[in-house]
């Protein structure tokens, strides 16, 4: 189905200069594209940053986003990661009610099952770190929600194409 709406995971290699994030997010917003997830960080080259973001839409939306990104001077290269074999991660920190005793033990067991870790312990709650695929992170959130989540923060998705798996979906200037 070429026209079905789905989540596109894009990676843009950009010059690491002030205002790039504002320029790109402003351009996408002004054209009515919603960013579902966004992560930005410096690469192995300190002169470059990688922006990984998720947009929802059909293939024509993806093509429009890519064309608009390629017009921006500070964008070096754009890659549709979702059309490749890739590894993705999302990082979650959350605080959940966990009074000492059996409830805390149940939460600790859930954290272990999801291969996370407790990174801070308070008298009545714990802070948990989970990383993995977006679906794993979401599943963990749903499992601990009944205990009472007091605070939650996520990084947004980051991803890299597996070695030797990059297709012609790459563009460059």
UniProtKB/TrEMBL annotation:
<protein>
    <recommendedName>
        <fullName>Acetolactate synthase small subunit</fullName>
        <ecNumber>2.2.1.6</ecNumber>
    </recommendedName>
</protein>
<dbReference type="GO" id="GO:1990610">
    <property type="term" value="F:acetolactate synthase regulator activity"/>
</dbReference>
<dbReference type="Pfam" id="PF10369">
    <property type="entry name" value="ALS_ss_C"/>
</dbReference>
<keyword id="KW-0808">Transferase</keyword>
<dbReference type="InterPro" id="IPR002912">
    <property type="entry name" value="ACT_dom"/>
</dbReference>
<dbReference type="Pfam" id="PF22629">
    <property type="entry name" value="ACT_AHAS_ss"/>
</dbReference>
<keyword id="KW-0028">Amino-acid biosynthesis</keyword>
<comment type="subunit">
    <text>Dimer of large and small chains.</text>
</comment>
<dbReference type="GO" id="GO:0003984">
    <property type="term" value="F:acetolactate synthase activity"/>
</dbReference>
<comment type="pathway">
    <text>Amino-acid biosynthesis; L-isoleucine biosynthesis; L-isoleucine from 2-oxobutanoate: step 1/4.</text>
</comment>
<comment type="pathway">
    <text>Amino-acid biosynthesis; L-valine biosynthesis; L-valine from pyruvate: step 1/4.</text>
</comment>
<dbReference type="InterPro" id="IPR027271">
    <property type="entry name" value="Acetolactate_synth/TF_NikR_C"/>
</dbReference>
<comment type="similarity">
    <text>Belongs to the acetolactate synthase small subunit family.</text>
</comment>
<dbReference type="InterPro" id="IPR054480">
    <property type="entry name" value="AHAS_small-like_ACT"/>
</dbReference>
<dbReference type="GO" id="GO:0009099">
    <property type="term" value="P:L-valine biosynthetic process"/>
</dbReference>
<dbReference type="GO" id="GO:0009097">
    <property type="term" value="P:isoleucine biosynthetic process"/>
</dbReference>
<dbReference type="InterPro" id="IPR004789">
    <property type="entry name" value="Acetalactate_synth_ssu"/>
</dbReference>
<dbReference type="GO" id="GO:0005829">
    <property type="term" value="C:cytosol"/>
</dbReference>
<comment type="function">
    <text>Catalyzes the conversion of 2 pyruvate molecules into acetolactate in the first common step of the biosynthetic pathway of the branched-amino acids such as leucine, isoleucine, and valine.</text>
</comment>
<keyword id="KW-0100">Branched-chain amino acid biosynthesis</keyword>
<feature type="domain" description="ACT">
    <location>
        <begin position="9"/>
        <end position="83"/>
    </location>
</feature>
<dbReference type="InterPro" id="IPR039557">
    <property type="entry name" value="AHAS_ACT"/>
</dbReference>
<dbReference type="InterPro" id="IPR045865">
    <property type="entry name" value="ACT-like_dom_sf"/>
</dbReference>
<dbReference type="InterPro" id="IPR019455">
    <property type="entry name" value="Acetolactate_synth_ssu_C"/>
</dbReference>
């Amino acid at each position: 189905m070429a026209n079905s709406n789905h989540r596109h995971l894009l990676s843009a290699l950009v010059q690491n200069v002030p205002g790039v994030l504002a320029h790109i997010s402003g351009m996408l917003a002004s054209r009515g594209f919603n960013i579902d997830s966004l992560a930005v960080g410096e690469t192995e080259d300190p002169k470059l940053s990688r922006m990984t973001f998720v947009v929802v839409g059909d293939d024509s939306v993806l093509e429009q986003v890519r064309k608009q990104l390629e017009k921006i001077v500070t964008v070096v290269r754009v890659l549709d990661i979702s059309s490749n074999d890739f590894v993705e991660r999302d990082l979650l920190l959350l605080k959940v009610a966990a009074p000492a005793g059996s409830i805390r033990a149940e939460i600790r067991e859930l954290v272990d099952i999801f291969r996370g870790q407790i990174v801070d312990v308070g008298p009545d709650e714990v802070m948990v770190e989970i990383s993995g695929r977006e679906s794993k992170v979401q599943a963990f959130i749903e499992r601990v929600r009944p205990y009472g989540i007091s605070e939650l923060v996520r990084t947004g998705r980051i991803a890299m194409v597996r070695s030797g798996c990059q297709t012609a979906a790459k563009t460059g200037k």
